[in-house]
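Just scan my protein:

. . .
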Amino acid sequence: METVRWILGVLLLLAGLGAFTENFGQALAYIAIGGALLPPVIPFIQQRFFRSSSDEITTTDDDEDKPPYNNDSIVEKDAWEADGWDFDTAVPLDATIEIKYTDGNGLETSRIVDVKYCSFTGNNDMFKGYCHLREANRTFRISRVQQAVDVSTGEIIDDFSVFLREKYEQSDHFALTNAFDKYYDNLRALLYVGKADGQLRRGERAVLYEFMQKITGRESIPENTLKYWADGIDLPSLAAFRQVVGRIAKQEKDLIEMTLRAAEDMSGTNKNAKPAELEAIEYMRKRFGIS
């Protein structure tokens, strides 16, 4: 019916425009009637041919507190739990757990969560991950987890906070963090040797990665992870390099020798080692008392 009104309205408007020169009064009548018929057609066109963005409800994995609502069912809404979340203290973690959780509004739910990050602050420990119930990322407070099960093993978790900490301590991130804290001078010295000619070539990078695996005690760390951490090492100046080597000279003999051997291996990857590279290694030998 509305389609008919639309056609009729357009025809009357056209007729009115065509009648202006012959019968002005009749033309005005046609235009008035046609105009009265057209307004209902505008929403008709919008409804059938255009979709407003407000008609669609979308969710993204990064949405917090935005369950995937639809027109057929409205799920209960999670309480906002992300207050106090600090990415500066958050650490990556990989675990899939099934939890019984009571949020800040008292809503009790059972859900499976792929944990991605944890923040251990002491009095307000939290974790963030993909919630299968809400099909979106969610943030949870550890203190509000009533029960937990490790989905990968079926193990019932007695102390959920301890479980997450132990999971993190088994991670490559934890191993690399500790290694960089203890052996950052060694890594900077090797980077200086490797970049003495202005660039860190593939062979030199491989030696650096192997050294990183040795100091972490993990030979299975993926290369892309090693690259990410290696790219964050601060390249020392010549003066800083000498200071670094002086501190390394006070370390245990095995570690000193391992560092020097890695530097020599780096130099050995180049057919024609640059003078600056050879001078750096010679300085290390002298400070370490190794001829």
